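Provenance and format

Records in this collection were gathered into a single text stream. Each protein contributes a sequence line and a token line. The two records reproduced below are adjacent in the stream.
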Amino acid sequence: MPRRRKVAVIGLDSATPQFMFDRFAADMPVFTRLREKSLWGPMRSVDPPITMPAWSCMMSGRTPGELGVYGFRDRAAHDYGPLAFATSHSIEVPRIWDEMTAAGRPSVVLGVPGTYPPSPINGAMVSCFLAPSTRAGYTSPPGLRDELEKITGGYALDVENFRSPELPRVAQQVFDMSEQRFDVARHLATTQDWDFLSFVDMGPDRLHHGFWKYCDPAHPRHEPGNPYQDLFRDYYRALDRHLGAFLECLPEQTAVLVVSDHGAQPMTGGFCINEWLRREGLLTLAQEVAGPTPMSKAKVDWRRTVAWAEGGYYGRVFLNVEGREPQGIVPAAEYEDTRARIAAALEALPDPEGRPMGTRALRPGELYPEVRGIAPDLLVYVGDLRWRALATLGLGQGLYTTENDTGPDHANHGDTGILALSGPGIGPGRAEGLSLYDVAPTLRELLGLPRDPAGRAPVC
């Protein structure tokens, strides 16, 4: 029979094995002790390893293809307009708290990406950083917003403009947000009724993006002796203190899962993917851009364009297919050959010094058992995610840049996060081959929910 107990999920967005398990293990005595009595190990993320959809994949056991969500923004139609932001309405499958509600059991959900707008559940939900502001209805029940504002003096959905040269402000807000998120989690854990509690702290992700080059001597743009070189260590020490205070408030026999949605790594630079498509004769502009221009605002000659791209942590290439796009020119019969040629050319890309770059161009149909919504024709991991894909045209720096096109950024996502599961009956030890898709079946097992017949087996 499935077990039934209280389960608390502590989500650390972008927490990486190299920091949590190795580099800062001695600075994190609480987590290290917890790990010693946990089933733990590096955990492979989803493809693509993006916050949205990764947390929803984790809490449902479904792939991005089954969700029809491939990033923060996706195509809403086969047209040439800007991508549409994903919201909670984009997630049409039940997540663990929905399954708990259906079973008549209470949950607390705090800051889990993919929960704005909040949905009514049996329990309490505080939605994520995708809420436009705290003036919006970001809680369920609605009255919980006033309670949070009162106890926090101003609830922080996120670090404001974390890609910014205002380093002192960003650093302080990262530390403050993490402290507040754990404080609110402790408040909800001790004032709400729950069998399942899940919260996510975005602090590690914001820290990595804003300060990696300052803290990692291996970063290609590291600045020795800079005033922020110890910021990562200071942050992970503070994070460990917050973790200890939260664990102390949990009832005995609670199963605890510390998990991240993806990892992180130094960002080598940016690759101007639309400029590359232009050089390859695959993208033609009707009018030359005057300075940096987002792809969605460029004047494109669609009757002479085979493909275009959107950027971010990974690149999304879309083919201009006859009968699919309004002015498509790629015959359906030539779709696969055209896509294969573009994929092969991308994977053969050299870096600026002419060395192999290690780019991967992935096909949705090969990644997912089902492809819903409008997926990219190719998901492109430039330099295996060491390089950010820049969709902006007119940067004037050739194909390669050292910086991001949307603000300062020194880290890109990695495909490996962390998992540490502790509780009565959990055998401790390092586990290999862990996957983000292991989380939902394990939570169902611990909570006594019905197993998904098509899902993976639990790890406990």
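Adjacent record:
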Amino acid sequence: MNALFAILLFLIPIFLILTRGRRSSKRYPPGSLGIPIVGQSIGLLRAMRSNTADKWLQHRVMKYGPVSKLSLFGKPTVFIYGQAANKFLFNSDSSTVSNQQTESIRMILGDRGIQELSGGDHKRVRDALLLFLKPESLKQYVGKMDEEIRKHLQMHWQDKQQVTVLPLMKILTFNLICSLLFDLEQGTRRDKFLECFQQMIEGIWSVPLKLPFTRYNRSLKASMRVRNMVKELINEKRKKLEQEGASPRQDLITCMLSIRNEDGEKVLTEKEIVHNVMVVMVAGYETSSALITFIIRFLSIEPAIYAAVVQEQEEIARSKQLGEFLTWEDLAKMKYTWKVAMETLRVVPPVFGGFRKALKDIEYDGYLIPKGWQIFWASSMTHMDTSIFPEPSKFDPSRYEKQPVPPYCFVAFGGGPRICPGNEFARIETLAAIHHLVTQFSWKLLADDSFSRDPTPVPAQGLPVQIMPKKTTLPPKY
């Protein structure tokens, strides 16, 4: 009897350990991590470039359910989606989930950008960016933005019979960033900046293999060149502040250099300024150019919506004197045009998805998200949910007039405390650009309306269009 009791005492702990291990393993989300380092990265990137990423994710949902594990860009990852997932990610305590991106994004854009920070650091940097990017500050720059857009159209659109929209919109958004955010005028320096910047962003979403032939490696090298250029800009702005007493609000870099706390100490380090300048550049360049491009695309294939936008914008144009710039009050009248922009963001979100990092073991929807794992979410999965947006494939700007969108369902700009600080800048440049495009030109698509992602959406052939100038009095040339 004593021997049997001793055996039981020996076996019970082993049994408990084994059963606990089995219970724990069942709590991990279903799915496979795939090949080490590579995992499912190549499959996702291929799906994005063939515009089948939504189907790729839907297939995972059908196979594994709303929560599944995989490996992306060198890290074990849990994929979640939907309104509850968005709310969880955008509102999680900074001790639970951090805003850490993939290694490729972090290495190329830096580890002190707002997209990497959490808690107090995130709030500090966000508040600093909003000093320049909040509506109250941007009001004074509407005229300057309008001037840049007119210059662009006169240089690249007027007297042309055909243009390719996406590359031109990228030139426009880059010039707006350089002019308004960095006070960097046109010339060889800006051209060199653009060349290095375009090389840098090619590998932002990539497998982090630092080999000579990879996009990731080429982007890393370009990133170092861009950082050095930004540092030169910062040094020049700092000297002007010290020697000439430059206005702290003349551009974003000068604004960030000027910020002090209650003790008179600098709020941002130079590294944080460099990294956040790069983040703002990428966000403003990639997402805004895609948004304006796809608005043009949808207006090409939706004649009734195009007519409504033209009517709204021509009423504003008729209220202006010849050569008079747009104002903040004019932008406020562009309500229908912004609904068109919102519907464009819903159907073709410039940001396909994003990443977070679990800082500790997390219970979510009955599963364990282990400490250190990535969490991947995709905006399009919510934007195309029939329970939230009836007939989601239909392009319908009027849906925003019928009833408000539930919280954390439209997440083109993020949500909660994580909402993009540059959303107001994007709204202004989009509305101003569309105003001049529809009042000065009409156009016709010269390619099919398909698109791919790399990682932002790219229409077929860059969206070539035939353009016809309207018989209106053009603004004065510059």
